[in-house]
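Exam prep: given the inputs below (a chain plus iron/sulfur cluster), describe the expected output before reading on.
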Amino acid sequence: MGIKILTEHINVPGIETLEVYRKHGGYRSVEKALKTMSPDEVVEEVKTSGLRGRGGAGFPTGMKWSFLAKPEGVPRYLVCNADESEPGTFKDRYFMEKTPHSLIEGMITSSYALGANTSYIYIRGELMFVLRILEKAIAEAYAAGLLGKNILGSGYDLDLHVAPGGGAYICGEETALLESLEGKRGNPRNKPPFPAVKGLFASPTVVNNVESIASVPWIVNNGGAEYAKIGIGRSTGTKLFSCSGNINKPGVYEIELGVPVEEFIYSDEYCGGIWKGKQLKAVVPGGSSVPILPANLITKTAAGEDRLMTYESLSDGGFVSGSMLGSGAFIVFDEDQCIVRNTWNYARFYHHESCGQCSPCREGTGWMEKVLHRIEHGHGHQQDIDLLVSVAKQIEGNTICPLGDAAAWPVASAIRHFRDEFEWHIKHPKEAILPGAVYRGQLA
Ligand code: L3W
Ligand code: SF4
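Solution:
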């Protein structure tokens, strides 16, 4: 069992209450930071820790905090992105539901570091039951003097609000989230300016994922240097993974970054191997927005090295500039899964969720969905495969927000790694549309 930073006490009965949470060391970071550290010292510890954003992009949290503009007389905000909607991602919901005070503690310590006196948790609209859990915990924190005026007699004030979204995936994009929080339609803004300069209500704002914020108390309690010792290379600390698909033990696992992917899939401590002893076909390591990797590339890189659960190791060899660790949604496909059907399913999702502001995304996601639909339903043409690649290329890098790239990558990577499966669908349409029909060529 590796070190547990976020989930050590997650199964303690009553941990969702302030009383039990405090008995297990809860809110120590608030006492330490507010009474013995300056805000800049907290920022320095987070920088030293090497903590990277857990929402998908892996951007260094301390660096983001140090970008926060501090004009005189202008309020600053911390906004927690709890709009978890990425297909395959359910770590933040699980975490908030089980241990809401961990997030609230992280919000107080982080808001203090940033000089924010009003902060928000923007939560996915479908998670009303989690919103109620958070609101109850926030009320307990106010009653105990951990929120509100003059927290623990330190002179620092913080008001914390929970705001539900309306259920649109795009509101998880940080600038769309801010628009939504301001009461407007959740359309992404052009960047720059980044939220750190002009964010909520045009004020400097930091937007961080739930898990990133919840990692801060441990860093404050133990020091950034201790955190940096956990993990490997530039992938420091622990990370939550939402594991789903054809595995024996789906669920949320906290791992020290650097565990070999093979161990993660097959060990009983984590995914427990492929369901019913079937053969592994492919893995989407970081949520539907990242490329799919075939079985032969998920445990070893093209150079034959062990692939590790890190930001650096999980890439598909230059196809995507960023990491494929993404939001930590580890989706496993066994030999009975159809890649074409799955790719169409993703395309349908992105088409539905596109906000429609930019033409490449608005039109391109629709075209990809239609072409994939016809291939999956036995009406594909040979040229459709290159057409899909061409549309994906024209979307990538040409849109306001990353939803365009997120729609293009799964399609382009599925074709890159499973082209023969697409060709089989087109050449054998009557066979391919039979219920349960799967191309098994690449498994031989
Ligand atoms: C100030 C600069 N700030 C960058 C900040 C920026 C943002 C962060 C990362 O997308 C990915 C996306 C999804 N001055 C700055 C700066 N920043 N340069 O750093 O920015 P960026 O643009 O690299 O990414 P992003 O817009 O945050 C996130 C991918 O995550 N994803 C989806 C996740 C979905 C969920 C969910 O449902 N919970 O997490 C999965 O892989 O495709 O590529 O804060 O402001 N010069
Ligand atoms: Fe909207 Fe898509 Fe453009 Fe993002 S890329 S702003 S979702 S149209």
